[in-house]
Amino acid sequence: MLRMFGVSRRGGGRQRGTPLGLLTVPTLLVTACTTPAPAPTTGPDQDFQPTATIEELMRWMVDPPADAMWDAVVITSTPDGLEEQRPETDDDWLALERDAVLLLEAGNLLQMENRPVADAASVSELPGVDLEPEEIAARIADNPDAWRRSARALHDAGVVMLDAVRARDVDALLEGGDRLDVACENCHSRFWYPSGPGSRALEAAGTPSP
Ligand code: HEC
Prior knowledge:
The chain is mainly alpha-helical. It has one domain (57-205): Four Helix Bundle (Hemerythrin (Met), subunit A) (Up-down Bundle). The chain is built from five helices and two strands. β1 (74-78) and β2 form a beta hairpin. It is globular. Bound molecules: heme C. Heme C (HEC) binds next to α1, α3, α4 and α5.
C-alpha cells in the first residue's frame, strides 16, 4: 500500500476543542471472598486463539482507524486561502479515542504467535512486489524479534495518538500521525513488500532475501 499525505502543518493558531464532558466513573464493589483466587495463568500456557488472519486484522482493525486518524486534521490550500478540517465535537474526539485504542491493541494482537497471514485463497495483488502469504509467514518465522518489535512500534504509536487525542492536541495528533505512518511502513517494507517501491533497504539490517 502506498500512501500520499497532503497534510501540511500550520504553526501557532491552534485552537483547542471544548473540554471533555463529565465522565462517569463506575464504582467497582468488591465483596469479600473466602476462596483464594486462582493463580494467574502466565507464560506459554496462555490460551490465545489467533483466529483472524494478519490480513483481516489489517483490513478491519488497523487500516480504518489509521485512515480516520490521518484524515482527522487536513489543511487544504484553496484559492480562498487555507481550509482546515479538524476534530471539533466531543463525538469527533471520542471516535478518535476509539480509533487509537483499536490501533494500539492491534499492536498486541499482532504479537500473538501462530496467527495465519491470510486465508488459503488469498494471493498477492501485486506479484513480484507484494510477497505471497507463505513468503510473509517464512519471513516472520525467520525474524520473530523484528516482527514483534514492528508490532510493538504500532502499539507505541497508538499510545502517542491516544495521548494526543485525550489532550485534544491537534499538533500532537499530526506528529503522532507521522509516527504511525513510520510504524506501518517499517513493517510493510520488511515483511510485505521488501523489494517494492518505498522499501527502505532494511535488507541491510539482516533480513534474508526470500
Ligand atoms: C507488524 C507488522 C505490520 C504493521 C505494524 C502494519 N502492517 Fe499492514 N500488513 C502487514 C502484513 C504482513 C501485510 C500483508 C498481509 C497480506 O495481505 O497477506 C499487511 C497488509 C496490510 C494491508 C492490506 C490488507 C489487504 O486487504 O490485503 C493494509 C491496508 C495494511 N496492511 C495497512 C496497515 C496500516 C495502515 C498500518 C499502520 C497503521 C499497518 N498496516 C501496520 C504487516 C503490518
